[in-house]
Write a structure and sequence with these properties.
- This protein has helices spanning about 110-115, 265-275; strands at about 10, 15, 20-25, 35-50, 55-60, 65-75, 75-80, 85-90, 95, 100-105, 115-125, 140, 150, 155-165, 165, 170, 180-185, 190-195, 200-215, 215-220, 220-225, 230-250, 255-260, 260-265.
- With about 290 residues, it is mostly beta strands.
- The protein has one domain (about 10-290): Jelly Rolls (Sandwich), CATH 2.60.120.10.
- The strands form 5 sheets. Strands 1, 13, 14, 17, 18, 19, 20, 21 and 22 form a 9-stranded antiparallel beta sheet that branches.
- A hairpin with a 4-residue loop joins strand 7 (about 75-80) and strand 8 (about 85-90).
- The radius of gyration is 19 Å and the shape is globular.
- It comes from Hymenobacter edaphi.
- Its cofactor is Fe cation.
- Belongs to the pirin family.
- Keywords: Iron, Metal-binding.
Length: about 290
Amino acid sequence: MTLRTPQPPQAARAADLDGVPIHHALPVGALEQIDPFLLLDHIGPVTLAPHNAGLPFGPHPHRGFATVTLVLAGAVLHHDSRGNRQTVGAGGVQWMTAARGIIHAENLPRELRETGGELELLQLWINLPAALKMEQPAYQGLPAELLPQVASDEGRARLTAVAGSWPGAAGPAQPLRPVQLALLQLQAGGRYQWRVDEPQNAFVYAVRGSVRANSQILAARELLPLAADGDTIELRAEADALLLLGAAAPLNEPLARQGPFVMNTTTQLMEAVRDYQMGRMGMLMESETR
């Protein structure tokens, strides 16, 4: 067993999303990505008023990567140009592989817009290798009851597996290439030992609480990359904590990104814009998404 070396933690950058608080955890500062993880946004927590406008994520395209939305509180309605339409509630996950191109929208279901309530989301973007960027798009909606949970450390640690293999559980998400992704709840003093293959890049994001990751203290809304120089990450909660754990082998490929498109070259970005404008990613009307 060799402990990984934690890099300096990065505090998520606070912003406002049409009245909803959002923290941009990745990219942040000089940290452009944790290959293949491209973006991590923490939306909320917020109490929405009755008769609210919903989320400002109307129909928009993606190509070249996967988006993962983890619903911590509230619910999200997904609708895309492949005909998928599903509401996933608290504890569930929406995994959309954009690949060659798809148009989707994310909004609140009608009930949450009309009555208001709690909302908290995490959204993660995961890059695809050049060889898979033009695969067919796919969507997988995973309600909370489909995500296995494993308790350890006398009940002080509880892991919810989203993707990849974990001790005692396998995540039901089916990415195009292997990814480890899980939520980990720790009571104060609780411990969890995370084994990660050395070639993989790994991160820990503290949704709330405080945790020690190997030798580094991580506070709420901080992102911790860990060097790929060992196979073990030891986590100990300084206070009750909720963490997002992610690991995957790096792509080590050229990165070209522009808005909702992530490719390998500028020419490919231009092709993505052209294909979207020509309707090759399908169609989705604003009126269909509410």
